[in-house]
Amino acid sequence: MPKQFSRLVDAETSTFQATALRVTDASVFAKPIVIASSDARFIVAEQLAQSGVAADIVLEPSRQDSAAAVAVAALCAAKRDPSTVLLILAADHVIGDTEAFRAAARDAASGARAGHVMTLGIQPTRPASDYGYVRPGPVLDGLSGLHAVERFVEKPDKAGAERLIAEGALWNSGYFMFRADVMIAELAAHVPDVLAAARAALEAATSDLDFIRLDAAAFAKAPKTSIDYAVMERTSRAGVLPVSFPWSDVGTWDAVWKVLDRDSQGNAVRGRVELVGTTNSLVHSEGEGLTTVVGLDDVVVVATPDAVLVASKARSGEVKDLVATLRQKAHPEADAHRRMYRPWGWYQRIDIGERFQVKRIMVTPGGRLSLQKHYHRAEHWVVVKGTAEVTVNERVVLVHENEAVYLPIGSMHRLTNPGKIPLELIEVQVGSYTGEDDIIRVEDIYGR
Amino acid sequence: MPKQFSRLVDAETSTFQATALRVTDASVFAKPIVIASSDARFIVAEQLAQSGVAADIVLEPSRQDSAAAVAVAALCAAKRDPSTVLLILAADHVIGDTEAFRAAARDAASGARAGHVMTLGIQPTRPASDYGYVRPGPVLDGLSGLHAVERFVEKPDKAGAERLIAEGALWNSGYFMFRADVMIAELAAHVPDVLAAARAALEAATSDLDFIRLDAAAFAKAPKTSIDYAVMERTSRAGVLPVSFPWSDVGTWDAVWKVLDRDSQGNAVRGRVELVGTTNSLVHSEGEGLTTVVGLDDVVVVATPDAVLVASKARSGEVKDLVATLRQKAHPEADAHRRMYRPWGWYQRIDIGERFQVKRIMVTPGGRLSLQKHYHRAEHWVVVKGTAEVTVNERVVLVHENEAVYLPIGSMHRLTNPGKIPLELIEVQVGSYTGEDDIIRVEDIYGR
């Protein structure tokens, strides 16, 4: 599962949810705009709903890098008011002090309102070679505490990082703050193709209850470039506010370990874990299983019901190479995860054998699956929680907890949760082929 | 799962099965006697059946160490014929050359027939400090190639091992060979209490179709002592046959790794595994899950659907401490495993939630569960393979593949496989309590 949606750092809240919750103070922030990959739409909606955060969700039909995303955000905000001040936040960072963060946002906003493109510069706590740096210049006119940016510096080696810190450089957080009209003017000046593509994609966007879907053909024309390279390193308006709250971009497992609570042996554990003679390690056990580690130092172990990762913490950056290898070899774990989120809820496979498959399915109140049929499998549904409204051909029946219904091969069927509590059922599929693609959708309220 | 029943070394055959298959040549060996813990009875019977090996299975109601087990074996064999020659084999060893092993058994038998208590001494291939040693003395009278035992030596340190090997000492394999009447006489001389307890336990034993069950009260009186200490180190009749087949007692994960096939990086892998920058490691992934290891040397990773072990290979001996810790903390994984073997087949839990539980159940042809009822749960059975004969109160129905049956709370029910192929079904339990102990057994063909 993409890092920002997983509960690695906090058992209850993903970093995406923590990011959304960080900007809910209505005296400081307006309703957020979430720019997300189209693939992530259901989990974005689900996690926002879980956290009780209302947001506009804009879906990118393809990945065009951060300049295009920022252009879309600026154009959306400018529709509200061209002088709206935007704060750009990554969804996968950890911030240790929400109050300090809010205070920083308020301070940087004064620079943004004055026409600067502000960034937050984090006071370094170690000579990190995995972050970019920003060197502050003179104080901005009439804006006490805010500095012009002297220059941005790419990720240095360790010696370079030590030199930069001695010179007063700060970590480049990637949090930017600016007026919508200012950013639009900067994009027009430096990357007009990006701005044009974003504008066209937004103008031709379609909206439904939950999502604003950018036009795929128009958006695909945006050149792929980062906002740092496209604007921040070129603009004459760059400003920086030095801040010192605890911060991590959680870019490696080592960085995750650093932000977690650790015991006296230096271990950060979660879930059913038992350690013997093990130190300075991160051990995360999801689900019911027990994870044990014996006689190791400085390792990362993440065990979930569908995959296990064991890595040297020092070399956890190589996990990226691993994911590339998995993609190349077409292992589904590279991108898929066990619980599949859908507009109506989720499902997960719990068993599979020759000629059968078993799933657990959750449908949110009001959720409604498509009207569908299968050519190669029959299905048995046993309701274990809530009430299901089941359509089978011409018949509609209510199926309550501890009741079952049978859907013969080829029958036209539909599942709805008409109730007020989540519906959970066990689906037993029996047939010669149980692949996801044996599904004929006849009608779907989610436009799939 | 106890090591001897798991498929760690070979994906198809446990070391217990390999041990049983090693003595199937009827021109050399009679029908084997398996002495097993009562807890292991179903898996012993299941694995013997899978391997097509017929054996007498004697169940120990408590663990009394190896002298008592050997006494029971000798007394059983003496009933056939007091001069029967017995070969004692541990179930958790690996032997690389079955033909050489059989030849050794034939050679040692001549010493046993002549009244010696023979052991096989393995030619050492490294100065092991985790094996005991045996020093051969002069050749036995008229028995070319067989030596008297000069003495047995406890596990030495590495320097001691090097010295012993230079002196011509051999590894003590723990394989013993003797006439039944000779061993009974030796036991009577050295540990008469052990012999008396074994005799009483066998005389009061009960037999059913599958098992001979030793009397618990009588057997519990056997002093706990090993056959090495009780007889081998004291008898004047000890003899040793030096042999040189590849052998391991697979006593640690490091030893398991040593007997497995390894790739050019020194890795022994099994199942869905992907390694990046990893060397000299054993990685074993059971079930559907993917296991990945990044940037580590000399580790053991064993991932199964219910537990994950990650250990330094050099320190894998400490796994024993881990199991002790798990027992102390009452983690079920210390002794239980996910697939629970029963006289009629097996079951495993595949999902559990609030007020429900899902199991996959396999019933062997002819298998018959007890007539039973539950006070707190109803059950839905969906047959996914084979045919079930289901009794529900007064009614008996046949349930075929892709058919389901419902068992209300409190109904008297029974499941039988009347067919010729294994029966598999998915059981969905729904109710306020789904623990194993909500079961009232009214009748059971297995005497439970």
Automatic annotation (TrEMBL), chains A, B:
<feature type="domain" description="Nucleotidyl transferase">
    <location>
        <begin position="11"/>
        <end position="262"/>
    </location>
</feature>
<dbReference type="InterPro" id="IPR029044">
    <property type="entry name" value="Nucleotide-diphossugar_trans"/>
</dbReference>
<dbReference type="InterPro" id="IPR011051">
    <property type="entry name" value="RmlC_Cupin_sf"/>
</dbReference>
<keyword id="KW-0342">GTP-binding</keyword>
<dbReference type="InterPro" id="IPR051161">
    <property type="entry name" value="Mannose-6P_isomerase_type2"/>
</dbReference>
<dbReference type="InterPro" id="IPR006375">
    <property type="entry name" value="Man1P_GuaTrfase/Man6P_Isoase"/>
</dbReference>
<dbReference type="InterPro" id="IPR014710">
    <property type="entry name" value="RmlC-like_jellyroll"/>
</dbReference>
<dbReference type="Pfam" id="PF01050">
    <property type="entry name" value="MannoseP_isomer"/>
</dbReference>
<dbReference type="GO" id="GO:0016779">
    <property type="term" value="F:nucleotidyltransferase activity"/>
</dbReference>
<dbReference type="InterPro" id="IPR054566">
    <property type="entry name" value="ManC/GMP-like_b-helix"/>
</dbReference>
<keyword id="KW-0547">Nucleotide-binding</keyword>
<feature type="domain" description="Mannose-6-phosphate isomerase type II C-terminal">
    <location>
        <begin position="333"/>
        <end position="444"/>
    </location>
</feature>
<keyword id="KW-0548">Nucleotidyltransferase</keyword>
<comment type="similarity">
    <text>Belongs to the mannose-6-phosphate isomerase type 2 family.</text>
</comment>
<dbReference type="InterPro" id="IPR005835">
    <property type="entry name" value="NTP_transferase_dom"/>
</dbReference>
<dbReference type="GO" id="GO:0016853">
    <property type="term" value="F:isomerase activity"/>
</dbReference>
<dbReference type="Pfam" id="PF22640">
    <property type="entry name" value="ManC_GMP_beta-helix"/>
</dbReference>
<keyword id="KW-0808">Transferase</keyword>
<dbReference type="InterPro" id="IPR001538">
    <property type="entry name" value="Man6P_isomerase-2_C"/>
</dbReference>
<keyword id="KW-0413">Isomerase</keyword>
<dbReference type="Pfam" id="PF00483">
    <property type="entry name" value="NTP_transferase"/>
</dbReference>
<protein>
    <recommendedName>
        <fullName>mannose-1-phosphate guanylyltransferase</fullName>
        <ecNumber>2.7.7.13</ecNumber>
    </recommendedName>
</protein>
<feature type="domain" description="MannoseP isomerase/GMP-like beta-helix">
    <location>
        <begin position="273"/>
        <end position="326"/>
    </location>
</feature>
